[in-house]
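Person: Please comment on this record:
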Amino acid sequence: MAEIKAFKALRFHTETAGMIEELVCPPYDIISEEQRAQYLEKNPYNIIRLELPKGERPYEEAGETLQTWLEQGILRQDDRDAIYIYEEEFVVNGISRKFKGCIVRVKLEEFSKGVVLPHEETLSKAKEDRFNLMKATNCNFSQIYSLYMDPQHEITAQLDKLSADTPVNELTDTDQVTHRLWIVTDEQEISTICQAFADKKLYIADGHHRYETALNYRNYCRENGIGGESRDYVMMMLVDMEHPGLLVLPTHRLVRDLPHFDKAELLEGCRAYFDISEEPDIAAAEEKLAALYEKGEKAFAFYCGGDSYSLMVLKDKNATASLLPDKSDALRGLDVTVLHTLVLEKVFGIDAENMAKQINLTYVKQFDDAIAAVQDRKAQCAFILNPTRVTEIRDVAAAGEKMPQKSTYFYPKLITGLVMNRF
């Protein structure tokens, strides 16, 4: 099963580089060009310069910049192998939550071995970008986020014990998420944690592109006789799948540019599978969906503008079985599978390739943004969804299948720049 090990992380030397708050950033794929410029204006040593390089020779310049920062002492490699305990604390809908895990090196395994399991499809363009960056820098600047099953929660209890003192780093970002980091160098404690993962499978929560890129990088290094044992590992943040602080948010769907869009006709086509009621207040849609979610119902809010919306509740939980006979019950039962198969494909005529290329379908995380897109006529309609359950992610991955793109949104994202893995 999963083989993990401690490592000597590359970290910012704040006495030289500046305050840690000015050196870290969110994941590269959610940062706009304007935000990137703002990070670098605040501190030119911000990690975004390495993680999201720009210019005519972006990857080569990232490699050159990394080498310069090492020579200048901006970044320093820890002198002892360690496991890094990382915690995020945040507030959503007035409720304070936090979760904790450990950052380690994980041995790379092909998905076919069933040790590290994916749950979402990936895009080749993103993998090419990350591969070019890894070749130029020989470094992981951000962690892959993975989950594991631990029914007795023994690993989390151990991590809590080892992080009872003051963290090495603590900062609160612009989204009011607090990040804390502790470093464990005791060899016996490290051995205990590593051994605890010997019977564990790892389920990728966020970072599918980076994991597949790490596999490609390992193979590239082997073929070209580059590097040593470290190329066979990748940096991951590991969190108990049943941690009470874990939060998965939904990703809503926007439909645009469909010819002959007719709300009444489309709703009529949906009635074969859904009980549909007209609700007066779109502002109450999330609360209504949440109540149905707690009951185990599959439901969506279909919004086309104005104050009202159509509430769609699936009649038959097995409705997708005949249309997806070769898929597992876990995949067929997902809210996103129900929506994509019964509504977007069958009624709206948007096939899987169209969705993948985002021709008539786009994705948005915030409820208010989805509603505004329809009201501003940037989209013809929005489907508001409930979140995917963590157990559903586990079951789909265990069945060797992958969810549609944008099926999960783990919140908050892991911050980039606290800990880096140099090969």
